[in-house]
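User: quick one, fold this
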Amino acid sequence: MNAETATTAPKTDVFEGLDPAVRERTKKMLMSFIVFAIVMLFAGFTSAYIVSNMGAYWVHVTAPSGLWASNVLIVLSSASLWWATRAMKAGNKTQGLVGMALTLLLGIGFTISQAEGWRSLNEMGMGWTINETESGLKAYRWNSIEALMEGPATYGEDFTVSRNNVELLYNPNKKEFYAPDDALMVEPITREVKRTSNAGGAYIWSLIGVHILHLVFGFVYLVVNGIRMFVGTIHAGDTVRLKALGIYWHFLGILWLYLFGFLFLLY
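Assistant:
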């Protein structure tokens, strides 16, 4: 009876009895597939951003200090996770747990700095307006470029408006926009520009939001692996889960740096 039970009992680890090298390669490969899927998702977002930018009046903003701080925090979190993984491989469990805790705290700090950065953009007018319909429901719409003109932001310093990646001319005294080739500022095109919604703000919000969503999954995996380290499931002889976590976490850091450069430096 005991033999029969042992035969039919389910395996707690699908890799049980296999070569450890096979297990490590498989876990890394699965994480690589996840990373590839995320790459394709954000490639679609950024491609749509570029296409939408063509032929439209487009707002380009200067990155607020909160988003600059995000760059530092995400790099430091990758460094602390690398340190935690290295400590565990060396058999130093205490340092490994400290590194994991530090990574979590830096990741939370990154999320807070992202929220602060978006709050600054929203105060400039990059956010949305909430209106109430006749039926009493709330309707959300992205602010027009006019919201930026009437807000505290300074044209040329905090934001610019361009068409086909050519910046419009702007007279701050008259609050009028002019075509790039109208050097004497004779014919204002402000009315046409004001009718344009701030699609750039929608893309920034979407890209930041989706990135944070994927970071939440990273938080969950980080906490789970921290618990595994504490109870001894992850030890000096078995750090493959930390390596898989590292692939995902470091990728998210690189992804954010790419998004930051794409949104605030290139486009």
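User: anything notable?
Assistant: The CA atoms of residues 5 and 11 lie 12 Å apart.
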